[in-house]
Amino acid sequence: MSNEKLTENLKEMVIGLGGSNIGIGTKQTLKGGPESTDLSYVLKDAESSITFAVPFNQDLIEPYLSKKDFSLNENKIRTTTFTGGIALEVAGFLNQMGYEAIPIAPNFIYRKDTPNGIRDRKPLISHKYLAARSGVGFFGYSGSILTSNYGSAIVLASVVTDAQLTPTDPIPESENYCDDCRLCKLSCIPNYISDEKIKVNIGGYDFEYQKPNSHWRCILVCGGATGLHSSKKYSTWSPGRFDLPEDDDKKFESLRDKSMITYVKRPKKDAVFYHPGVPEYKMQYTCSTCQFICHPDKSVRKHRYKLFKDNGVIVENEIGNRMSVSPDEAENIIAKMPEDRKRLYVN
Ligand code: SF4
Ligand code: SF4
């Protein structure tokens, strides 16, 4: 089979299995990129990468952002697992056709040869860089990959192979809908997205997005340890109410010790991801707000941001049922808790 024909077959396969957007990178098109675009880290004789997106259930986004229905949590876990499954299918197919191919899961697989091993959370390869360079989507201000159909409410995965595939180009800058609205940044309770830009060149193309602050900011809030905005008027789906340091990344890291101890002790009634770096391995995403707010239509983005801000704060009962209540009601509920329960949620 010719390289072109094999490439077309793989594109059809990914879309047929449930992908929404696909791109092909090669050693040449990824040349000069950051370390995490080096395919040979994964497969010594790698020639190409296949990177693709799978959308989350769009109907669940607004009920989630308005803190009425947490079902998007389970959909996120299932969609992420399904996306890894497509990578496994594609790699298996290539293998049966006589090629070497390694599936790369969407998340939670880290390099072990960095100074702190998996605690550094450095991915084997960056799905995002591969996706931007191969035209799966484009970098938004948030640092997420935006797609023209589903915004950034997608999961990415890749397959690295020694098959010589036909590369695809980045999406032209004129088609990038990111207009700097910054609703992603405004919606980020721990201020993870900084004001500084990161610029990278991959295979002769420039890409730009905002530099993140300490990763612990996102890990603690998106990972569910805490999630109350400093105004105390709104929150993520996390019932944690720890004070968030404004500008100091180091203080944020020390919050990790306190908030993770209580996080482990809280009831986790709803579905969880299994993460090697989390105590007792169970992690429940409670944010992803920046990812879910961003939509190609600006009026949808604004509406979603308002839903997130105007729908109160989350509290949970003894068995882990969560509900959104007004900020005053939340204060009352917390004040009436026995001290040992209260310590699970507040400073
Ligand atoms: S929310 Fe606005 S600024 Fe942020 S990535 Fe989306 S379009 Fe860009
Ligand atoms: S997932 Fe939440 S905490 Fe993480 S960057 Fe996005 S908005 Fe901020």
Structural features, described:
- With 347 residues, this protein is of the alpha+beta class.
- It is 33% helix and 17% strand.
- It has one domain.
- It contains eleven helices and twelve strands.
- The strands form five sheets. Strands 1-2-6-3 form a four-stranded antiparallel beta sheet, sandwiched between helices. A two-stranded antiparallel ribbon has the order 4-5.
Strand content: 15-25%
Counted up, domains total 1
**In this structure, how is the largest beta sheet organized?**
4 strands, antiparallel
| Low-pLDDT sequence parts | none
- Computed Rg: 21 Å
Secondary-structure content class: alpha+beta
What ions, cofactors and ligands are bound?
iron/sulfur cluster
Number of separate helices: 11
Tell me the helix content: 25-40%
Extended strand count = 12
This entry's quaternary arrangement is single chain
* Cα-to-Cα separation, first versus last residue: 63 Å
Spatial order of the strands forming the largest sheet: 1-2-6-3
Q: How would the global form be characterised?
A: globular
Order of helices and strands: HEEHHEHEEEHEEHHEEHHEEHH
Overall pLDDT score: 95
